[in-house]
Amino acid sequence: MRKSVRKHGRVITTRTINESFTMCEMFERFMWFKQSEGLAPRTIEEYEIHFKWLLDYLQQDLTSEQMTLKVFLDWIDFMLNDMGLQPTTVNIRVRTMRAFLRWCYLENLIGTPIHERFKPMKTAEDTIEALTVTEIKTLLNAFDESTFVGFRDKVMVMVLLDSMVRIS
Which domain, by its residues, includes 61? Predict the structure, then answer.
């Protein structure tokens, strides 16, 4: 059953929840779902780390009724102002928790679409400076081509420069 409520000029739709789970129980189900999607182990680990940081902030498990927009906005404020984290770092955590909240809403585990109003912050776009011709020449002249290691390293750098691939 859906119910619409007008709040601060916006219409907010809520749904009746059939079952009641704690936030930790919902997260366990969410992680099972994410693992069944075949996400990379590192991605799964990041979800778990970010959720643990949220739990450390809350210092308790929450019921679905206690999971409100205010809780998550307060968490953002805490990370920015009390922990002194950079907005880009906070945004990484926000994105993973938004995915969790979106899943909870779609699975009818929470009644309010918190994820729609709990968004990453605007941050300045990183600009990557390219090397100048002089810097490239200086870099390539720094290798000792008379040794195998020097020649190998110069070839690797030339391949990276020519193909514009990232080192990873």
Answer: 2-116
36 and 96 both lie in a single domain: yes
- pLDDT the model gives residue 101: 96
The overall pTM is greater than 0.70 = no
CATH number of domain containing 58: 1.10.150
Q: DSSP letter string over 54-108?
A: HHHHH-S--BTTT--HHHHHHHHHIIIIIS---HHHHHHHHHHHHHHHHHHHHTT
With vertex at residue 91, the alpha carbon angle to CA 117 and CA 128, rounded to the nearest 5 degrees, is 130
75-122 pLDDT tens trace: 999 999 999 999 999 999 999 999 999 999 999 999 999 999 988 888
123 belongs to a structural domain: no
- 87 and 40 both lie in a single domain: yes
Shared domain check, 158 and 80? no
Cα distances (angstroms) measured from residue 130 to each of 26, 65, 134, 158, 167 = 45, 50, 11, 15, 15
Confidence of residue 152 (pLDDT cuts 50, 70, 90): very high
